[in-house]
Design a protein that fits this description.
Number of domains: 2
Strand content: 15-25%
Largest sheet: 8 strands, parallel, barrel
Strand order of the largest sheet: 7-8-9-10-11-12-13-14
CATH topology of the largest domain: TIM Barrel
Radius of gyration: 21 Å
Oligomer: single chain
Bound molecules: phosphoenolpyruvate, manganese (II) ion
Number of helices: 10
Structural class: alpha/beta
CATH superfamily of the largest domain: Aldolase class I
CATH class of the largest domain: Alpha Beta
Distance between the termini: 37 Å
Number of strands: 14
Shape: elongated
């Protein structure tokens, strides 16, 4: 339920509504827009009993939110959410941020080399997994903390932000300490205990869509983080399972405009995992920008044939650079930049 305050509502009126909601054991989320102040009610409205919020001074309208996700919904927050990453970068503005780097941090040389190349081509955020969710227990599992250290070194050297995956509550403190953006992978989208824990963390979160998750399930996962108190959620479409086997997954680009219609959260697209074949990554990055994505996640490896993870979908630094030139032109045509 959201409470829309009248244009002439005073601060006292606003606080009156907040106090009344809190007295009923509910949480009130205040959103002061340019034109209207909206108060979102968090919790079960049954707690209000029969109390009519409409009758309080300064209240214009009380609207139920029909979707099961509340804080993630567009009705809860009219303006688009802009997620700050560190002091000098935001996601969800006219600048489209490209997060690029290898699937996994394999060595210091590999990561520093890739970081320099993607930085020169215009990426602003470096990706690389230190804790890797692999389908096979025999496959390379990532360098762990050593990988985080290497990412931190690359951040210092090249002035990039970093995004890396957390797989488990036990490693959340260490990943949080190192990274600028915490990535929740597709396999953990419905790890509700992890989501609850991340709701308490003061770092932006890149929440990947689950392998077979509907848009509603994905937004409900975001709701766990938002309702826990962390409002800096970035959604990432990374392909879903379908009957098609030519590609690794089916990249659902329709999710970009749909999620932006349903939610105020920024949306990033990851065509690398969505398609799984490097040749088709650039065309789908171009399409993602055209569809309105606020960012891209792209795997880049200095030598894809030798990659320990996801080589088949990784771009070489040279191909990445060519793609960035095309993306810049598409973004400019849409009044955005990269
Ligand atoms: C990744 O980004 O390397 C990754 C494992 O992604 P996903 O969770 O989308 O498979
Ligand atoms: Mn990968």
């Amino acid at each position: 339920m959201i409470v829309i305050m009248a244009d002439n509502a005073t601060e006292e009126d606003i606080q009156g509504v907040v106090k009344r909601l809190e007295a009923a054991g509910l949480r009130a989320h205040l959103s002061r827009g340019v034109e209207k102040t909206i108060i979102g009610l968090i919790g079960d409205k049954v707690r209000l009993g029969g109390f009519a919020i409409e009758a309080l001074p300064g209240v214009e309208e009380v609207i139920p939110i029909l979707q099961p996700y509340k804080m993630a919904s567009r009705s809860f927050r009219a303006e688009r959410t802009v997620v700050p990453v560190g002091e000098d970068l935001v996601i969800g503005s006219e600048k489209i941020h490209v997060m690029a780097g290898p699937c996994a941090v394999e060595s210091r040389e590999q990561l520093l080399y890739t970081a320099e190349k993607v930085r020169a081509a215009g990426a602003t955020i470096l990706r690389g997994g230190a804790f890797k969710p692999r389908s096979s227990p025999y496959a390379f599992q990532g360098l762990g903390e050593q990988g985080l250290n290497i990412l931190a070194e690359a951040r210092e050297r090249f002035g990039l932000k970093i995004v890396t995956e957390v797989m488990d509550i036990r490693t959340l403190p260490i990943v949080t300490a190192y990274t600028d953006i915490i990535q929740i992978g597709t396999r953990n989208m419905q790890n509700f205990d992890l989501l609850k824990e991340i709701g308490q963390v003061n770092k932006p979160v890149l929440l990947k869509r689950g392998l077979s998750a509907t848009i509603e399930e994905w937004l409900m996962a975001a709701e766990y983080i938002l309702s826990g108190g962390n409002s800096d959620v970035i959604l990432c479409e990374r392909g879903i399972r379908s009957f098609e086997t030519y590609t690794r997954n089916t990249l659902d680009l329709s999710a970009v405009p749909i999620v932006k219609h349903l939610s105020h959260l920024p949306v990033v697209v990851d065509p690398s995992h969505g398609i799984g074949r490097w040749k088709f990554v650039a065309p789908m990055c171009r399409a993602a920008v055209a569809a309105g994505a606020d960012g891209l996640l792209v795997e880049v490896h200095p030598n894809p044939a030798e990659a320990l993870c996801d080589g088949a979908q990784s771009l070489t630094p040279e191909n990445f650079e060519i793609m960035m030139g095309d993306l810049r032109r598409i973004a400019a045509a849409l009044g955005r930049n990269i």
